[in-house]
Amino acid sequence: MTIRCFLLSVISALALSLSAQEAAPPAKPLRIIAFGAHPDDPEFQIGGCAIKWTKLGHQVKLVACTNGDIGHWGMSGGELAQRRTAEVQEAAKRMGTTVEVLDIHDGELLPTLENRKKIVKLIREWDADLVFSHRPYDYHPDHRNVGLLVQDAAFMVMVPYFCPDVPSMKKNPAFFFFPDGFTKPYPFTPTLAVSIDDVFDEKVKAIDALESQVYEGGALGDETTRGRRFGDDPVRRLEFLKKSWSNRHGAIADKHRATLLEWYGEEAGAAVKHAEAFELCEYGSRPSKEQLRILFPFFSK
């Protein structure tokens, strides 16, 4: 073979290789599942990132581990449970997510073996890459127990003969905690913080569907609850909601500014106005920083 023929064959092989790479199917979409104590908690805690993931073609499921049936000052029981389920279903439509509400009474969630099995099965059935929950150090017993249940599932999802009716996972997902303001036994320490400036208005429109909580005050409201004076005026309602949630996500951005600078760089990190933040749980997989960039594909290289 002449040198010219050899070079031509090499060039041809490279061209075929590049063509094959270009024609290769995209990587498998990520699958994310977030567990909250009540029908509103996952939407509040991770709604911005949920919208960002779905816009990129990934699949997000939000699970309320109780039905929220005592989470209102003026109504309760089956009527409230049905109302709150309808609210999160509407929020899911606005976010492009999937939602499920477990039939467990609000205020009565316990870290039992039965509930651990429920959580394990949900994670396996969703084939999750990422799992989110409250930390097990929270003011509300339902929040704490969600954290315990999800932590206890972190190893069991891979054990074949635990809940053998649902195939075990071959890899352990990455588990993350939502932020909170409690400091004992240790404070929330963010692994990463994500700007939601680009989807902030969409998140507000999604949680606008959670009327019993964001406009009527939930369990601790009353007839004078702030927001009820807006009546059915959708414009004034959204203005109120946008302001209050801008304050909430602005506080997260300011509190975890150093983490935003780490992930976005000095200039972009300093400019973030609204953020969500998450702490990696040690019990699941422990992705590297580069792997985290794949799981959270929101940061420029």
What is this entry, summarized?
By secondary structure, the protein is α/β, with parallel strands linked by helices. It contains eleven helices and seven strands.
Please describe what this structure looks like.
It is a single chain. The chain is of the alpha/beta class and 301 residues long. The protein is built from eleven helices and seven strands. Strands 3-2-1-4-5-7-6 form a seven-stranded mixed beta sheet, sandwiched between helices. Helix 5 links the parallel strand 4 and strand 5 (174-177). The protein is globular.
List the helices and strands and how they pair.
Layout: H1 3-23, E1 31-36, H2 41-55, E2 59-64, H3 77-95, E3 98-101, H4 113-126, E4 130-133, H5 141-156, E5 174-177, E6 192-195, H6 200-207, H7 211-214, H8 234-255, H9 257-264, H10 266-271, E7 275-280, H11 289-295
Parallel strand pairs: 1-2, 1-4, 2-3, 4-5
Antiparallel strand pairs: 5-7, 6-7
Helix pairs in contact: 2-6, 3-6, 4-5, 6-8
CATH class of one domain: Alpha Beta
Q: Mean pLDDT across all residues, rounded?
A: 90
Largest sheet geometry? 7 strands, mixed
CATH architecture level-2 label of one domain: 3-Layer(aba) Sandwich
Secondary-structure element pattern, one letter each? HEHEHEHEHEEHHHHHEH
Low-pLDDT regions: 1-26
Helix content range of the residues, please?
A: 40-55%
Number of helices: 11
Instruction: Name the strands of the widest sheet in spatial order.
Output: 3-2-1-4-5-7-6
Q: Tell me the CATH superfamily of one domain.
A: LmbE-like
